[in-house]
Structure formats: structure tokens, C-alpha cells
Specification:
- With 121 residues, the chain is mainly beta.
- 0% of the residues lie in helices and 59% in strands.
- The protein contains no helices and 11 strands.
- The strands form 2 sheets. Strands 2, 4, 5, 6, 9, 10 and 11 form a 7-stranded mixed β-sheet that branches.
- Strand 5 and strand 6 form a beta hairpin.
Length: 121
């Protein structure tokens, strides 16, 4: 098991910023992909951003230019800097981490508990 702990969600006015953090811990051998997904009311979970161990990133079109994903490999932590938040962004944001565990290098996929992002106007 590789638990993830998310933090940083909250209420912000439109145009404001938030930074989400997600720290992975436990029986980790390596992490290949770290990312963020979100679930808005009445919508399916969607990809927000991902970051691979090779340094590539991927963003949903709706957040390009506003959100930035980054990671601190030494801390097994991924961040999502969210700027210019608008009415498209309220959702529960979930961290996702994929990698290999120390237990025979078995692959794992872990999800965070979710953190609420609310945007007011």
C-alpha cells in the first residue's frame, strides 16, 4: 500500500490561486507518474494534469496556461499550482500516483482522499 495525503484545497474567489499538495509514502520503490484528476458535480472524473518521471507533463485543455504541475521527487510529493481559478474549476481534486512498490517491484496505483476546491464570485 502506498497512501497519499492531499492538502491545499479550499475556497477562493474567481481569479485567485490555490496550490494543492499530495505526498506519497510507504513501500515505494519508484514513482513513474503523478497526477491530478477532478470530479465536478454531474460530471465524470477527468484528468487535470500529469507528470512523468521523465519530465513530461500533460494538461487538460481547460487548464492549460493556468495550472502547473510540479513534483519534488525527494519528498515523493506532487503539486498543482492553480491560478486564475474560474467557474470551470470547482470540484473535488484527487491525486493519483503510479509506480512500483518495494515488494517485488509490483506496480501500484494509489489515489488520494480528495480535496475540495470551491470558487466564489
Amino acid at each position: 500500500q502506498v497512501p497519499l495525503v492531499e492538502s491545499g484545497g479550499g475556497l477562493v474567489q474567481a481569479g485567485g490561486s490555490l496550490r494543492l499538495s499530495c505526498a506519497a509514502s510507504g513501500n515505494i520503490f519508484s514513482i513513474n507518474v503523478m497526477g491530478w484528476y477532478r470530479q465536478a458535480p454531474g460530471k465524470q472524473r477527468e484528468l487535470v494534469a500529469t507528470s512523468t518521471s521523465g519530465g513530461s507533463t500533460n494538461y487538460a485543455d481547460s487548464v492549460k496556461g493556468r495550472f502547473t504541475i510540479s513534483r519534488d521527487n525527494a519528498k515523493n510529493t506532487v503539486y498543482l499550482q492553480m491560478n486564475s481559478l474560474n467557474a470551470e474549476d470547482p470540484a473535488v481534486y484527487y491525486c493519483n500516483v503510479e509506480g512500483l512498490s518495494r515488494s517485488y517491484r509490483r506496480p501500484f496505483i494509489s489515489w488520494g482522499q480528495g480535496t475540495q476546491v470551491t470558487v466564489s464570485s
